[in-house]
Amino acid sequence: MRRAFELASAHPRVKGLQLGLGDLFEPLGIALRETAAIQQAMFALSMAAGEAGVFAYDSAFADIRDQGGFQAEARLARSFGFIGKSCIHPSQVALANEVFQPTPDEIAHAQRVVEAAAEADEASRGAYVVDGKMIDGPFVARARAIVAQAALNAASGAASKQDRESQKAMSRPSRRPDGARRRAVSACLT
Q1: Which helix (DSSP H) or strand (DSSP E) does residue 55 occupy?
Q2: pTM for the full model?
Q3: Strand 174-175 relative to strand 16-18, pairing
Q4: Complete domains list, the chain, with CATH
């Protein structure tokens, strides 16, 4: 963790850092559900990733039966600026997508900020108000990222439906010629 920035900026092909709570905590005997420790690790990784100009991704959540725990950890990661979470089971994919997608209200606000930024640029104003909040460069950059993510999500909507149908078909038990049953399990990152 102490060298996260150095690792993130080691080569232009490095696009992100991923937190590995199990790898970090388990050898030290730190509880994987210790909120204070999780928050500190997420903050440190997010700051290192931001300083290096790369993305931060949250770690896998090993208890695949605990959907509430997965969602809570994903929401915490999102609040620290992480853009996704590793999924180690197909049941986690929809949960991660739900948490990390911008909400309709976030998208609408971001669009208003981007529109106001264009007007402010024309008028040579560095700061202005949108929806009762002061806006300047960092807020505009975040708004543009939200609008871009929303556009990407909309463009991939049809493909996602096909992916979900394929995933559903793959996760159903099937009979092989030898009579054995198999179940496909995939890993993914949102």
Answers
A1: strand 55-58
A2: 0.76
A3: unpaired
A4: 1-100 (3.20.20.60), 102-174 (no CATH)
Counts for the chain of helices (H) and strands (E), in that order: 8, 8
pLDDT of 152 reads 86
Place of tokens 């900020």: 113
Rounded Cα gap, residues 25 and 22, in angstroms: 5
pLDDT of residue 54: 96
Nearest C-alpha neighbor of 9 from the set 45, 35, 48: 48
Q: What is the 3-state secondary structure (H, E, C) of 109-121?
A: HHHHHHHHHHHHH
Tell me the one-letter amino acid at 2.
Answer: R
All residues at 6 or more sequence positions from 138 whose CB lies less than 8 Å from its CB, including other chains: none
Please give the average pLDDT of every successive group of 10 residues along the chain, which has 190 residues: 95 95 94 93 96 95 95 96 95 95 95 96 93 95 92 72 55 40 33
CA angle 168, 171, 177 (to 5 degrees): 120
Q: DSSP code of 130?
A: E
d(CA 106, CA 110) in angstroms, rounded, equals 6
